[in-house]
């Protein structure tokens, strides 16, 4: 039985709009904070007991239509042997940033054998979810450009200046780096799909820092490669980046089944910027979860209605991740509301 989320991704008929939230696992949940006490983020990501439990926490609490595999975009880098840590309050920090041709040449390759724990975590989570009615498991990886930014900058960056300097000044080197990272992302997702994930999302979180021309020249071919190399799995894919309103036409050409819209673009505009009939995901502003329900409800209803008017399927989501201080009761209320409104509209 295919799940509602998979059918919506494929723009097939559904009886409700499926919904999940980026960053639905994590710091907004007290049960997550409790489990994470005393362990490092990347250690937790490699421990199947913890990964399975953390992945399922938001499913139980919010009744979302999909679990997203609990991991991080730097896990494949670490699995390949790159020295990276996730510093609390900062994010990923790379011990030896990649700046020269020699740095690129010496990057290790990633193989499935380096990640038996990922296979185990996914299989166990998929088995648990199979006991529920209709909940998909979404795998993911970082897109080549976003991973390159962390590697080149050495950590989170406000302006991505070293990354852009390499892109413009040494485009051949930059392309070699992105090709290597595309291979790693593909391997990471391939392992997840082989173990039972039913869809995947490619996060190009920082692509929105690029102009459409630079994106098309230096980034799009590598993201395209990830989607085409995984096409044999025949599962739906989602392609998302932050602040990508201007980039949606280009990103929609990468070959994903679904395009994720950031909250800074009107859903109805996003609808005209993707390929005809291509499904959309999004795009409620995560900060609106702090607004009173009377103010939030009409925003939810508008996005559900816009989604049903779109020429392809719609997966309801936020336009970026759940903020850590979000009231953990609110996402579940949104799930119920999206289901209630969409069921009524679809049956009426
Ligand atoms: O200790 C903690 O709780 C650290 C916070 C945290 C969490 C919960 C980090 C550090 N990563 C994660 C999990 C995570 N990361 C998930 C799975 C959980 C879920 O979505 O429910 C996913 C999909 C990611 C992906 C990820 N990591 C992205 C892409 C999504 C996005 O937000 O755009 C990015 C950019 C990262 C890097 C990263 N990891 C962690 C932080 C704080 C950051 C961002 C740092 C920065 O600003 O550059």
TrEMBL record:
Amino acids binding substrate: 23-27, 72, 150, 205, 320
E.C. designation(s): 4.1.1.37
Keyword tags: Cytoplasm, Decarboxylase, Lyase, Porphyrin biosynthesis
Protein's pathway: Porphyrin-containing compound metabolism; protoporphyrin-IX biosynthesis; coproporphyrinogen-III from 5-aminolevulinate: step 4/4
Annotated ranges, domain Uroporphyrinogen decarboxylase (URO-D): 18-27, 138-154
Superkingdom in the source lineage: Bacteria
An MF annotation (GO) of this entry: uroporphyrinogen decarboxylase activity
Compartment(s) where it occurs, according to its Swiss-Prot or TrEMBL record: Cytoplasm
UniProt keyword annotation of Hydrolase present: no
Keyword Transmembrane helix carried by entry: no
Site residues (Transition state stabilizer), renumbered to this chain: 72
Function (record text): Catalyzes the decarboxylation of four acetate groups of uroporphyrinogen-III to yield coproporphyrinogen-III.
Family the UniProt entry places it in: Belongs to the uroporphyrinogen decarboxylase family.
Record note on quaternary structure: Homodimer.
Entry protein name: Uroporphyrinogen decarboxylase
Organism lineage string: Bacteria, Bacillati, Actinomycetota, Actinomycetes, Micrococcales
């Amino acid at each position: 039985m295919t799940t509602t989320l998979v059918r919506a991704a494929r723009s097939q008929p559904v009886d409700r709009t499926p919904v999940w939230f980026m960053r639905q696992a994590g710091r907004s949940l007290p049960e997550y904070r409790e489990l994470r006490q005393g362990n490092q983020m990347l250690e937790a990501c490699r421990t199947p007991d913890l990964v399975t439990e953390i992945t399922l926490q938001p499913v139980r609490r919010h009744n979302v239509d999909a679990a997203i595999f609990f991991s991080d975009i730097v896990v494949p880098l670490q699995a390949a042997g790159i020295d990276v840590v996730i510093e609390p309050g900062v994010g990923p920090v790379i011990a030896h940033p990649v700046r020269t041709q020699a740095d690129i040449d010496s990057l290790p390759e990633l193989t499935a054998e380096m990640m038996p724990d990922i296979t185990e975590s996914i299989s166990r989570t998929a088995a648990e979810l199979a006991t529920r009615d209709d909940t998909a498991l979404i795998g993911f990886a970082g897109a080549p450009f976003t991973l390159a930014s962390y590697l080149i900058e050495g950590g989170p960056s406000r302006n991505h200046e070293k990354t852009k300097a390499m892109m413009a000044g040494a485009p051949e080197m930059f392309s070699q780096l992105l090709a290597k990272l595309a291979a790693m992302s593909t391997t990471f997702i391939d392992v997840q799909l082989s173990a039972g994930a039913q869809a995947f999302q490619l996060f190009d979180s920082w692509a929105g820092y690029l102009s459409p021309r630079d994106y098309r020249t230096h980034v799009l071919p590598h993201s395209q490669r990830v989607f085409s190399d995984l096409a044999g799995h025949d599962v739906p894919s989602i392609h998302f980046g932050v602040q990508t309103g201007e980039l949606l036409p280009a990103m929609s050409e990468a070959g994903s089944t679904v395009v994720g819209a950031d909250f800074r673009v009107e859903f109805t505009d996003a609808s005209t910027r993707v390929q005809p009939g291509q499904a959309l995901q999004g795009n409620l502003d995560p900060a609106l979860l702090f607004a009173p329900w009377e103010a939030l409800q009409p925003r939810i209803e508008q996005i559900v209605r816009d989604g049903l008017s779109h020429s392809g399927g719609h997966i309801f989501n936020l336009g970026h991740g759940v903020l850590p201080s979000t009231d953990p009761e609110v996402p579940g209320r949104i799930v119920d509301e999206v289901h209630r409104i969409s069921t009524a509209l679809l049956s009426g």
